[in-house]
Amino acid sequence: MDFSGTWKVYSEENLEAFLKVIGAPEMIVKMRKDVKPVVVIEQNGKDFVYTIKTPMFTRVYSFTLGQETEIPSLDGRKVKCTIREENGKLIGEADKFTSVREIRGDEMTEVSKSKGAF
């Protein structure tokens, strides 16, 4: 599947608990509850450039499917993560969480789960 495009994130399940699990500051947790980001994906085969835009910040990172990479957290720390494509979804896995992103029409959903408990 080609994920290239600009996507509005309209659904983020478990966002607050996910942000707390990865250690985001309380100010970031409160701010992100009210802000739905726009995600721009540029895909070339298994290589991706992923841009997340909100009114407060823009984060850009790149990754190759199936290879470990470091992605920036909301507070600027780096989180090691491996991202794969499965059944038309981008699935990111790290030590503390799994994130599943799916495109539906012109919008994106994200479900995040901690590897411990929510």
From TrEMBL:
Q: Which InterPro entries match?
A: Calycin (IPR012674), Fatty_acid-bd (IPR000463), ILBP (IPR031259)
Give the UniProt family note: Belongs to the calycin superfamily. Fatty-acid binding protein (FABP) family.
Annotated GO molecular function terms are: lipid binding
Protein name, as recorded: Fatty acid binding protein 10b, liver basic
* PANTHER family linked to this entry: FATTY ACID BINDING PROTEIN (PTHR11955)
